[in-house]
Amino acid sequence: MHRALLAAVQFLHTIAMSSSSPFKLRVAICGGGISGLCLAVALSRCPNIQVQVYEATDRFKEIGAGVMIWARTWKILELLGLGSAFSKIAHSPPDGSIGTGFDFRRSDQPEEGSRFHLVQMPYGCIRFYRVDFLDAFVEALPPNVAHFGMRLASYSQNASASEISLQFSNGTTATCDLLAGCDGIKSSIRAQLYRECSERSGDSTLLKFIDPVWTGTIAYRGLIPVEHLPPCHRSIADPMMYCGKSKHVVSYSISRGKVVNVVTFASDPKREGEPHNEDVWVTNCLQQELLECYSNWEPEVEQLLNQIENPTKWAIHHLRPLPFFVDRKIALLGDACHAMAPHEGAGKRISLKITNLRFINYSPEGAGQAIEDAFILASLLEQVSSLETLPLALDAYQRVRLPFANHVLKGSYDSGLMYEFNSQYGEDYEILGPAIEKQWDWVEEPSPEEERLRALQYLKDAISWF
Ligand SMILES: Cc1cc2nc3c(=O)[nH]c(=O)nc-3n(C[C@H](O)[C@H](O)[C@H](O)COP(=O)(O)OP(=O)(O)OC[C@H]3O[C@@H](n4cnc5c(N)ncnc54)[C@H](O)[C@@H]3O)c2cc1C
C-alpha cells in the first residue's frame, strides 16, 4: 500500500518538476470555520500554493460549546502535524488507549435508568472546547493569509476564463484559480453554483439542493462548571447518552474536566423536511422550556438540566445529499456540501452490547468530515503543477469524498432515529442492537491514508490519460 502511494506521489512530482517556471496555484478559501481553516493550514505548507482566507465576520469565532472527534479524525490531525497542538487542548491527551465512546442509558422515566449499551474503542471520544479547537487551527495559520469583513457576495467564472473573480459585499474584489467554498450550511457559494448548473443544464431539480432541510429536531445546549455537579455524576468521567422516546441527551466533560458540555435533542420525525418557521435557527431560551421538555426523566438528567441557566435553542438542519461538490474550478467543503445532523459520531458505530465489546475505528461527524475534506483536497492540490491539471485534482476530490460524506450524512440522520427509538427497530434492544450494528458497514472501510492514496491514484491515472 505504501509503495503504491510512493509511486503515485513520485509520478506526480515528476510531472510538477518537468514544468519550466515555478507554478503557484492561487486558492481563495471563503469561510474561516473548521473546514476553511483546516484547509488553509494544510495548503499553507504546499510550496506550489498561494492561499488566502476570506471570512465574512470580523474574526475567526466558534460558539461556546463542546465538539468531539474520533480516532479517524485524530489520525488526520496527526498527519497534518497538528497532533501536539490538539493534544494540549483535548479533555486529556489522546494516547490510543481504550476509552468510552458513549455509555447508553434508558432515561425517560422518573426512577433511575439503566445502561443498555456501552461503547468502547481506542482513543474513546476525544473532546474539546470548540473555541480552543478553532484556535489551534488559527495558531497554525501563517501571517497575512486571513482577511476579515470579507463576505463573498458572488463570483464569476466563465468557461474560457482562466481565473475566477470574487465580489465581496464591502465592494472589494479579488481573483483566484480555485475557489474553496467553506461558508457553512447556508453557503451562498453552493447556492450560486447549483443555480448556475441548473440554468446551464436546464435541470431545475438541482435547485432543491440549495436550501437546507429541517430535520424535525430541536436541540438545547449549555455548559456546566464541573463543581456545580455532584462529584459522582457519570458525565464527569464518561461521555453519556441518555435516551428516551423521541428525545436524547448527550453530555461529556471538556476543558480538562473543568466543564461539562450538554446538548439535548427533541424530535418529531414526521416533520422532517417541513420548513422551520423561524429564519433564525439559533436563539436563547428560558431554562423552564428545557426542564419541561425533559420532565420526569431520571434524576441524573434532571441534575444536569437544572444547572443550565441560559440554554441556547437550535433548529437542527441538514442538506439533501448533494449530487456534486465541484463545478469547474469551485469546490465545496464541510457543511457547505454535507451539513448533517450531529448524531453520526455517537450513533453510527455504536453496536457494542455490554456483553459483547468490540473495539472499532470510530468515524467522525460534521467537523470530522470537514477535516477529512480538507485533508484529501490539500493532498491533491499539492500535486497540481498547472491550471490544466487542476480540474483533474478536483474530480479526484469529488470521487473520493462525495460518496463517503453522503453516506455519513444519511447514517447520521438514521442514527438519531435509533437513539430515540423511532427507527423501524423500535424499543426492543435485542433487535435494535444488531440493527445499529448493521450500520457499521463502513467500519472496515478505508482509513484516511488509504482514502488519500485512492485520491492520488485517481489523479495519477487521469494525468496519464490527459
Ligand atoms: C448541535 C451541534 C453539535 C455538533 N457537534 C459536533 C461534534 O461533536 N463533532 C463534530 O464533528 N461535529 C459536530 N457538529 C457539526 C460541526 O459543528 C460542523 O460540521 C462544522 O462546524 C462545520 O464547519 P464549517 O467550517 O464547514 O462551517 P462553519 O463552522 O459554519 O463555518 C463557516 C464560516 O464561513 C463564514 N461565512 C459564511 N458565509 C460567508 C461568505 N459569504 N463569505 C465569507 N465567509 C462566509 C462564516 O462566518 C463561518 O466562519 C455539531 C453541529 C451541531 C449543530
TrEMBL record:
**Keywords assigned by UniProt, alphabetized:** FAD, Flavoprotein, Oxidoreductase, Signal
Mind listing the GO biological process terms from this record?
secondary metabolite biosynthetic process
Q: Which SUPFAM superfamilies does the entry mention?
A: FAD-linked reductases, C-terminal domain, FAD/NAD(P)-binding domain
Which InterPro entries does this one have? FAD-bd, FAD/NAD-bd_sf, FAD_monoxygenase
A molecular function (GO) term: oxidoreductase activity
Record's keyword annotation contains Cell membrane: no
Instruction: Give the signal sequence positions.
Output: 1-20
Q: Which residues form the FAD-binding domain?
A: 25-347
- Pfam families named in the record: FAD_binding_3
Which protein is depicted?
Answer: FAD NAD-binding domain-containing protein
